[in-house]
Write a structure and sequence with these properties.
The protein is an alpha/beta fold. It has nine helices and twelve strands. The two termini are 29 Å apart. Bound molecules: (5S)-5-amino-3-OXO-hexanoic acid and zinc ion.
């Protein structure tokens, strides 16, 4: 099996300090959380831009500050969000692609997202994919329902995506596929040959999905975006603490963690910003 790529999703767009005081908001706080997660074993950090008060923004100037602040600390891969927050327009979400980051998320379908709807119109998805090709950005395809894998294959047939690609199975969003092994296994079984995948379990599904991914030969995403608890009743001190546990479990199960450069090789990232 390949080395395990751990992605740290350090803040997201929805979780606020009122829920977890460890959620980073400013570019410096996000970069420090990224560096700490990297030191704990993460090869990729998935980041969302926030304003000073913590509200989500897709302002590309803020993303540029985050990317620079991370690069000043370590060589971890920065994967920016083009998902943003529920309710944002596709236009505001996509502006960050123009920074030509190493990686960006690409959501390929719509899904109920808790009390809201995460809307991804097919025409917008095609534009996001096209822009990522233009700017040489490696996409991570976000899959909230197994049928979204077929949507990605359709994009590839239209020449908007290169296969094999890298997928992120998000399990446990209320409205999406549940955080259970049978759902993860089905999503994996739907993949075209040669694709790589990460499992991101939400809430209490985070740790079990990460362990399933370690054993099945996938990769794992943890962090405060998806889950703020270390264990029942105890908040995680940081995303790094969640990364450190998965890295330790992976080693116990016979998989070493990938460095950022090893992850670049596995995911076909050839260009450093
Ligand atoms: N905040 C969610 C609505 C992504 O980063 O690309 C979407 C999201 C996915 O977090
Ligand atoms: Zn995200």
């Amino acid at each position: 099996m390949d080395r395990l790529i751990i992605t740290a999703a350090v803040n997201g767009a929805e979780v606020m300090r009122a829920q977890s005081p460890a959620v980073p908001y400013t570019p410096d706080e996000i970069a420090q959380a990224a560096a700490d997660a990297h030191a704990a074993g993460a090869a990729i950090v998935h980041v969302h831009a926030r304003r000073e008060d913590g509200t989500p923004t897709q302002d590309k100037a803020v993303y540029a500050r985050i990317i620079d602040a991370v690069a000043a600390r370590c060589d971890v891969i920065v994967q920016v969000s083009t998902g943003g927050a529920v309710g944002m327009s596709a236009q505001e979400r996509s502006a960050v692609i123009e920074l030509a980051p190493e990686m960006a998320t690409l959501s390929v379908g719509s899904v109920n997202f808790g009390d809201g709807v995460f809307v991804n119109h097919p025409a917008d998805v095609a534009r996001f994919a096209q822009r990522m090709q233009e700017y040489g950005v490696v996409p991570e395809i976000e899959v909230f329902e197994a049928g979204m894998v077929a949507a990605a294959v359709r994009l590839a047939r239209e020449g908007l995506l290169r296969l094999p690609a890298h997928f992120d199975f998000v399990l446990g969003v209320p409205g999406g596929m549940p955080g259970e092994l049978r759902h993860l296994q089905h999503a994996v079984d739907c993949l075209p040959p040669g694709c790589t995948w990460t499992a991101a379990g939400v809430g209490r599904a985070q740790l079990p999905m990460a362990v399933c991914a370690i054993v099945l030969g996938g990769h794992a995403r943890v962090g405060l975006e998806d889950n703020i608890y270390y264990q029942r009743g105890r908040l995680a001190a940081s995303s790094a603490e969640l990364v450190e546990r998965v890295a330790r479990l992976a080693r116990e199960l016979g998989r070493e963690t990938a460095t950022p450069d090893e992850a670049r090789a596995l995911l076909g990232i050839s260009r450093r910003p």
